[in-house]
Amino acid sequence: MAQTSTDRAATTDFNAYAVSTDKVATFDGQPRRDIPLTRTIEAAALLPDQSISESSFTVPASSTFEACASAFARGTLISTVMGPIAVEDLIPGDLVETHRGPQPVVWIGSTPYLHLPDFAAETTSLSYLLRMPGVGMDQSDLLLGPAARLVVRQDRFADLLNCDAVLAPASDYIDGDRVLRITPPGSVQLYHFALQSHGIIRANGHELESYHPGRVSAAEIGSSVRDMLQSMFPHLGSLEGFGDLAFPRTTRDVIETLRVA
């Protein structure tokens, strides 16, 4: 583990930006409980002086923000230079094994998942978790959140896309057989982490990506939301500091189209 000092940052509340909650009628005509439109994300960042800044953010419960902290369930083993480390035990500065060699964790965020059956699934992207089985001796079962993306490799990608792999949402591969959509009986803490540059990591032996916000333009999400998101990453001067994606992002449908092309 990296030996770094900890600088406790002030809690940031973005409720001023959030839409107020409303009662929603159910099919039986009775009002449902207020739908929560915010989520708390605990985060730690590796600052340029190698100190660690820890913060708590209350953010809108939208996919833009939930993606920061909803890829890996507590207990997921991440391959590092020191061997497998549970994702909840990673700290900024730890060196994670990637397809480009070891890279330091520069940011890690976490948020709780709790299934609330009274809430409409569309109110939040954290409406499900999924379980992916291990294959062979090097992999074990993996519990993932909605932000997880798998590495998909096909020989024809080199000719069609000028790369040997693409990234696709793990949820695209839910089939009710090997990859299952599940509802845990209790709360599950979810995590995601960013590296010095976007990379492919191994979680329980499976290839997945580290966190990257993707192309987040003010025109698409609004300048206030973009500024809010940027403030969550104090180690960077701007969201552009995340750099390029390691591989293109796409969907399973597009991949299947390429397969038959």
TrEMBL record:
The protein's matches in InterPro entries, at most eight in alphabetical order, are given as: Hedgehog/Intein_dom, Hint_dom_sf
Location of the Hedgehog/Intein (Hint) domain: 71-214
Which source organism? Marivita cryptomonadis
What is the protein named?
Answer: Hint domain-containing protein
Pfam families in the record, alphabetically?
Hint_2 (PF13403)
